[in-house]
Specification:
Two copies of one chain form a homodimer. Chain A is built from nine helices and 13 strands. In chain A, the strands form two sheets. Chain A has a seven-stranded mixed β-sheet with strand order 8-10-7-11-9-12-13, with helices on both faces. A five-stranded mixed β-sheet of chain A has the order 2-3-6-4-5.
């Protein structure tokens, strides 16, 4: 069960109490994806996430195709954060007219191809606002799923890439849309087309990348706990630390080119993976074997359960809470 | 892939063309649920349906708990219409405040218990309108899934119960809400509480029943094709007949007590199952063995592919299209 800020962590706790607990060996509400048993005894991953106009996207800044991409990619990211790979997607679209639906589906089909995640069914409905809710299935191919809750004191903390690109992308798209409001066309096509940093940041916001290969490598390298950076590093690390009953002490936060320190810490929506692991050599080997750039070491898990430090300072637990329309 | 009227059948066809075709032995878009292969070789059912405020429900006529029930029940019905039983549900809720969320989840938990369909994960988001999107997994326990598309000329057509109760329930709720607008409380608690037909019809609308046991019995009795009555008998039978390449000739339409003929034919949302089967004795035996009332024989499949008759008249293909807010 993922959440979008605004008291929703408390709501999820209430929901958890309304429903029966998961049986031994399964994980239900409270991780990036659920881990359930199939009828043939195998383990299956299940996740769902909805994207909502005005909350998760603004059609003045992105194309409907980007929304379709993102709706699938954020779900694939949930599967990746369990050390799994996606299999199937179901898509519910509310409130899209014919033209928007076609563009949405084109972006969704792009992501489906990129992540080898087949769109096998869905539902269309009219409605007063645009919502794309996706549900995905996934598999760990017989390996144990990497939960949020199994990090140990002494584990090293890694992130799969520098942070802040998505938040910086939103910033530059907004700036360009405002500065060049008199020009026609979408903001990412206005102004200088030779600005590669602008293009890269805008793309990070419009078409976030789910780190499936990195999640598989982290799992192979012995990751004890993992989560994707959807809400913001401080918030997401706090989830992992709280679920695992450990503290976290960071030495560094890798900042993406063109992003600010604030965007890297609190921007969210980067969909890089943060994970804990006990054996740095095994992690390095697993990433090398998968021909991936090595993950970035950012700190360590410590026994003091409530500790959340970045250097000598408190690690800010701010992040993505209705970035488009602050609550 | 199910649909809510308003040109959406055409949209689904366009979407189908955008996406790769299902591999041999799987069924993707175009049936009540998708049939896909799991990693252990077993077959799995996947379905999704969203309910939207102002389109699928009106909170002046039903409680948020009813919305939660309905959101799960309509998905369970999609699994039932394949001859399967549900296993897991994922729930995305958009735009519900804390109080509404709690009531929604209570109704959803009721349905989860009733249908033995575990809610294993979900997503909460703020938003400008209330949407509950549910996705479910299901299984046929090794039996072949009953598609829409395998009915044969000569097959007998059955429905699992009389029709029109949901549409009649909406009508009486509206009437009571209007006539007793000065009274406090929800419409189903106003006026005479001894009116059992009102109560039954209102319940049929507020808490529709998915026919899981009936779907399993139909499958065991050799059903060749099956669909749930969600849009209206005429529309849903047309889907089955078109997918199967047969015509349909009905002798009768069973009308629920308190419903009109029009409501039985076009009301939709009854979630009774309509199925075709070649051997009436096998059907009768399967329903008797499951201790279910026998299904109602309504007609026959015929070789003339375009024929849609009710007695000597055309079978009206009208039905549920944005009943609350006509498009």
């Amino acid at each position: 069960m993922s959440e979008g800020g605004n008291g929703e962590f408390a709501a999820i706790e209430r929901i958890r109490r309304l429903l029966p607990p998961a049986p031994e060996g399964e994980t239900w509400i409270g991780d990036d994806a659920a881990v359930v048993g199939g009828t043939a005894g195998e383990r299956m991953l299940l996740a769902t996430d909805a994207v909502v106009e005005g909350v998760h996207f603004d059609l003045d800044l992105v194309d409907a195709a980007d929304v379709g991409w993102k709706a699938l990619a954020v779900n694939v990211s949930d599967v990746a954060a369990m050390g799994g790979r996606p299999l199937h997607a179901l898509v519910s679209v509310v409130g899209a007219g014919a033209d928007m639906l076609d563009r949405l589906m084109r972006g969704l089909a792009d992501a489906s191809t990129a992540y080898r995640c087949d769109v096998v069914g869905g539902d269309l409905s009219s409605g007063p606002c645009l919502v794309v809710a996706v549900a995905v299935t996934g598999t760990t191919d017989g390996r144990r799923a990497v939960l949020r809750s199994k990090a140990l004191a002494g584990d090293v903390l890694y992130v799969t890439g520098p942070l802040g690109r998505s938040a910086a992308g939103l910033r530059v798209l907004r700036a360009r849309a405002g500065a060049l409001a008199d020009q026609a066309g979408p903001p990412w096509e206005r102004g200088s087309t030779g600005d590669s940093q602008f293009a890269e940041l805008a793309a990070a916001y419009r078409r976030p990348v789910a780190r499936v290969a990195e999640g598989l490598a982290a799992s192979a390298g012995g990751a004890t706990a993992m989560i994707d950076v959807s809400d913001g590093l401080g918030i997401d690390l706090d989830h992992l630390a709280t679920a695992s009953g450990v503290g976290v002490v960071l030495d560094t936060v890798p900042i993406a080119d063109g992003a600010s320190r604030e965007e890297a810490l609190a921007g969210g929506e980067d969909y890089e993976l943060v994970f804990a692991a006990g054996d740095p050599d095994a992690v390095a080997r697993a990433f090398a074997e998968a021909s991936l750039r090595p993950p970035i070491r950012i700190g360590r898990c410590v026994p003091e359960r409530t500790l959340r430090l970045l250097g000598a300072d408190p690690l800010p637990a701010t992040g993505w809470e209705h970035r488009l329309k602050p609550a």
